UniProtKB/TrEMBL annotation:
Stretch forming the signal peptide: none
Organism, as annotated: Paenibacillus taihuensis
Gene3D superfamilies documented for this protein: 3.40.50.2300
Domain Response regulatory residue range list: 66-180
Keywords, sorted A to Z: Phosphoprotein
InterPro entries, per database record: CheY-like_superfamily, Sig_transdc_resp-reg_receiver, ST_Response_Regulator
Positions of modified residues (4-aspartylphosphate): D115
Record keyword Phosphoprotein present: yes
PROSITE patterns reported in the protein's UniProt record: RESPONSE_REGULATORY
Name this protein carries in UniProt: Response regulator receiver domain-containing protein
Any one Gene Ontology BP term: phosphorelay signal transduction system
Domain of life of the source: Bacteria
Amino acid sequence: MIYILILLPVAIILLIGNAKQKQRENNKPIIDRSYVGDSHKQPVPAHRNAPSVQPALHNSNDEEQSVLIVDDQMAIRILLRELFEQEGLLVYEAVNGTSAIEVASSHQIDFILLDLKMPDMDGIEALQEIRKFNKTVQVAMITAFGDPDKLDKARQLGVQSFFTKPFDIDYLRNYVLISLNNARQNTAE
């Protein structure tokens, strides 16, 4: 029942977002974003339904910031992908902890939204592996369960904040954008 309560608003938001996006697309020129054949460029963005770890956008701007969304629920990944793409961020997705480690090790990631409970390994185990090669990436956890021991361990690994499902999408977006902006300002100083 809780999945229905989560998925129904997500589906409505996606339908409204798709309608708005189609309206915007009708008012702008078509841009070819295919990169097939250029091995030095980013991979071709994957279809939403594929269990992908590919970036959604490609921009040659070195200043572009990126977010990695790690959640085994496709609806949440789609919702967050569209939300952050609209903000101009480079968005990566991972369906589980193993994929998250792979993406984080092969791409420059500025912020990770990490689900705590996943099938192959939990978010804590995935973050422990990521911290072995990236000690500074900003991380916030998404969880439906608030196990105090896991939350304490997450804090020790540098998790900045926790969002309980179902979360306030506007608050989450603002939190990530402010965190990325603060990090950019700190590195500019």
